[in-house]
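hiii, so i know i said id send this last week but things got crazy w the move. better late than never?? heres the sequnce for the chain we talked about at the cafe, plus the structure i predicted for it. fair warning i was half asleep when i ran it
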Amino acid sequence: MNDPKIETVGMDTLIVRLFDGIDEAHMPWMLAADRALREAFGTALIDLVPSYTTLLVHYDVAHLTLPAARARVREALDGLSPTAEREGRRHVIPVWYDVSVGPELERIAARLGVSHDQVVARHCARDYSVFALGFAPGYAFMGRLDEELATPRLKTPRQKVAAGSVAIAERQTAVYPTLSPGGWNIVGRTPVALFGDDREGYSLFRPGDKVRFEAISREAFIEQGGDPTPLAERGDTPTEEQA
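okay and structure toks below
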């Protein structure tokens, strides 16, 4: 791990930068830093948001001055080492892969010169690390995707993407937890609810979790509560020029 860099981004907010590049091997360090900072700040901590290479620390200025907050960060990370004490959970997410709910499936298959089933097999062939939550509540950025499947974001984002849509962008993959705009390439849909007030912490996924996707049939998707309404009937579907 690099020497942590502490950046001031507001009167009550610091960004702690541990690494310069994205790598799954960094996750144990990020989780260890998350735990150490939470313990160091205690009741003075308002929020802590881990990301790929950084942690955002939002603290209470009624309890800490800026120099004191920076000192707590340095003390918390001094001698930091990764441990397996807080390994993430593993999730298996069922997905119905079909062009009616995953229109970019066809384009990716054509680009690679393979069948839809081969694209699906590659997407389901590995576990993905949850690096960060953001964009929308419960939206987990996961990676790293098979390099051959890496696909640029759409030039023109859709105005409406159905909840449960499974998508890829560059070497990342994600699931849209709620109906929202989005510019990622959609390849399928899951019946699993990813966000709700009935879940601890509201989100199914947390940084450090592992996720594997599992292909299911349309019938199984519907039996598990999935909505098979084609994406084109829900909102915007980019034209070939927009994709």
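btw The chain has two domains: 5-77, 90-233. thought thatd interest u
miss u guys!!
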